[in-house]
Structure formats: C-alpha cells, structure tokens
Amino acid sequence: FSFRLFPLREHGMNWRAKPLSCQEIQAFRKSKEVMDRFIRAYKLMLGFYGINLVSEGTGELERAENWRERFENLNRFSHNNLRITRILKCLGEMGYEDYQVHLVKFFLTETLVKETLPNVKRSALDYFLFTVRSKEKRRELVHYAWQHFRPQSSFVWGPRDKLQKYR
C-alpha cells in the first residue's frame, strides 16, 4: 500500500499508488480531520514553491518572502509542474475549486504578467488551466491568459473570435 499526499482517481507516476474511488473521496470530504490535513499539506507544498495561502476561506495566494529562491527552483526543475498539476486536480476532487482558480491565476500572473517563471508558462497554459472544474471560471482564466499573452496572435488555448467578444 502506497500513500499519496494528493490522491486522485487516476494513476500517477507512482505505479504502487492505488487511484481513489468516488466513495473514498466522499469519505475524505466528510472528515474534518482529513480535510484539515489536506489543507496543511497544501500549505506545505505552497511554501516549498514560494507561495503563501493568504485566506483559507477564499484560497487567495501571495508570494512568500523566499519567493525568489523558490521560483528559481521551479524554473530549473520541470518535474515540479507535474506535482502542481496533480495538486490542482486534487483540489478539484476535494471540493476546493476556488483554490484551483487562485493557484492557476497565480501561475498565469507570474508567467505572463510578471514573467518570473518562464519555464512554467507552457505547463500553466497546457495543463494547469484545464484542471479548473468550473467551466465559467476556466473561461475567465483563458481570457485572462489571452489578455496577457504575447504575441496575442500566437495564443492557441481558445478561439480568438470568442476571446475578443468575451464579457
């Protein structure tokens, strides 16, 4: 039996880890202890990436004090992108869709607006964006990405005509 910090209903890189069943997810979500541990694990991983959870109520995030050295690590080692994708999917499974939105927007802002994480940009656009469960929130994030992507004519993550008319 292999334990996963951010379990999913699909196989990951650890072939010994058994995917979660829908019943297990429901049991986890009903357990205050499990959900408290889940948030602690999320905060721990955010800290590793140089990010602070500002509000447990909303999922709002900010850069941590040590963000420069942690972002250097994120830029150097692309395996972190797989872990972030897994965390995002798990947030959705555990009912933290708002947390998903904040984490994806954080990475879109850092990659496209502040340009601090150039080596995370493709993962943010190709994978992180599409983990967001809410279709409406995902559309908002795609639009946000399109607004900040340069050159805008090379943006391939949504239909240009719809992006121009959005809102």
TrEMBL record:
Name the Pfam families on file. Answer: OGFr_N (PF04664)
Q: Name one GO cellular component term.
A: membrane
Q: One GO molecular-function annotation for this sequence?
A: opioid growth factor receptor activity
The Opioid growth factor receptor (OGFr) conserved domain, residue ranges: 5-164
Q: Which InterPro entries match?
A: OGF_rcpt, OGFr
Query: Which family, according to the similarity comment?
Result: Belongs to the opioid growth factor receptor family.
- The protein in question is named OGFR factor
Q: Which organism is it from?
A: Tichodroma muraria
